[in-house]
């Protein structure tokens, strides 16, 4: 019951915080960068959203642990008890340019096992959610992955090109993989938010997502939603995904092996 109480809190918190940040979206932003190449932005609203989410959690569950993007010095181990995995704004680059393709992601895990996930994209009016064993939902309606069984008929999204222009030895290989995905699928898209892209696979609006360099907050909630919708996630070696993995294939299961073969 305690996990379900946290689930209800996560849904309420994601909704309240997401709507507040959306209301502030088009005010002047304060933008910083976490890297020397100015590719990894963070805004004052990322920080505000995270503060509000953590405050909401700790008002009720004071001793719970947090693994959040903008609080890396205080991150707890991924195998901790009562661990909240938070991305206050996934798709910050989109957000800072005024795009609606961003979301608030909140997951809860016990010793590395994610029990629920909530992803709210306020400007798209999408709230995806799942509790382990209870199915996946979009705006409170059950969702399932697509029935597309051929890559040639598929719509695939990716984050392979993220930070690619500054990569070293893997640049040509990743470009080759990206081109093969482009050639083999019906359409290949980049939305700029991993949580949204994975959830769209769960909703059956796309058929797969391929991501590289992901962090736990980029997929913890969305991956559970995908799993509960009947989807599948593995690493690039086709092993079942763990929170420590960075390179993932998320699919409707039917085209998973075709994608895995391309990645190999």
Provide a descriptive summary of the structure in words.
The protein has 264 residues and is an alpha+beta fold. The protein has two domains: 2-143, Fructose-1,6-Bisphosphatase, Chain A, domain 1; 151-263, 3-Layer(aba) Sandwich (D-Maltodextrin-Binding Protein, domain 2), CATH 3.40.190. Helix content is 34%, strand content 25%. The protein contains seven helices and 14 strands. It has helices at 2-24, 44-60, 92-96, 171-184, 194-202, 216-228, 256-263; strands at residues 31-33, 41-43, 65-68, 83-90, 103-110, 113-121, 126-131, 136-138, 141-143, 155-158, 187-189, 208-211, 232-235, 248-251. A hairpin with a 4-residue loop joins strand 7 (126-131) and strand 8. Helix 1 (2-24) runs antiparallel to helix 2 (44-60) and helix 5 (194-202) runs parallel beside helix 6 (216-228).
Highlighted features:
264 residues, alpha+beta, Fructose-1,6-Bisphosphatase, Chain A, domain 1, D-Maltodextrin-Binding Protein, domain 2, 7-stranded mixed β-sheet, 5-stranded mixed β-sheet
Number of domain modules: 2
Q: What CATH architecture of the largest domain would you give?
A: 2-Layer Sandwich
Low-confidence stretches: none
Average pLDDT reading? 93
Q: Rounded to an integer, what's the Rg over CA atoms?
A: 17 Å
For the report, how would you describe the main beta sheet?
7 strands, mixed
How many individual β-strands?
A: 14
Shape: globular
Helix content: 25-40%
CATH topology of the largest domain: Fructose-1,6-Bisphosphatase, Chain A, domain 1
The named CATH superfamily of the largest domain: Fructose-1,6-Bisphosphatase, subunit A, domain 1
**Number of helical segments with 4 or more residues:** 7
Helix vs. strand class = alpha+beta
CATH domain class name of the largest domain = Alpha Beta
Order of helices and strands: HEEHEEHEEEEEEHEHEHEEH
Major sheet: arrangement of strands: 3-4-5-6-7-8-9
First-to-last CA distance: 43 Å
Strand content: 25-35%
């Amino acid at each position: 019951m305690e996990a379900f109480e946290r689930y209800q809190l996560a849904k309420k918190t994601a909704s309240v915080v997401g709507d507040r940040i959306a209301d502030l979206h088009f005010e002047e932003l304060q933008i910083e960068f976490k890297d020397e190449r100015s590719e990894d932005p963070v805004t004052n609203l990322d920080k505000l959203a995270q503060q509000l989410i953590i405050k909401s959690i700790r008002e009720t569950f004071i001793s719970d642990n947090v693994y959040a993007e903008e609080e890396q010095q205080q991150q707890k181990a991924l195998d901790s008890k009562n661990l909240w995995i938070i991305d206050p704004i996934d798709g910050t680059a989109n957000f800072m340019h005024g795009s609606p393709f961003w979301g608030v992601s909140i997951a809860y895990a016990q010793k590395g096992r994610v029990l629920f996930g909530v992803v709210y994209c306020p400007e798209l009016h999408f709230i995806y959610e799942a509790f382990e064993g209870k199915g996946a939902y979009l705006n409170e309606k059950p969702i399932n992955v697509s029935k597309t069984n051929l890559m040639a008929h598929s719509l695939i999204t990716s984050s392979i090109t993220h930070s690619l222009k500054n990569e070293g030895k893997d640049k040509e290989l990743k470009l080759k993989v990206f081109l093969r995905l482009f050639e083999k699928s019906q359409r290949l898209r980049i939305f700029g938010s991993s949580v949204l892209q994975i959830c769209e696979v769960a909703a059956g609006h796309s058929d797969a997502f391929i991501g590289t360099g992901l962090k736990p907050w980029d997929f913890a909630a969305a991956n559970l939603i995908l799993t509960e919708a009947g989807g599948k996630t593995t690493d690039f070696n086709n092993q079942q995904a763990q929170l420590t993995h960075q390179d993932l294939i998320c699919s409707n299961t039917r085209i998973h092996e075709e994608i895995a073969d391309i990645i190999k």
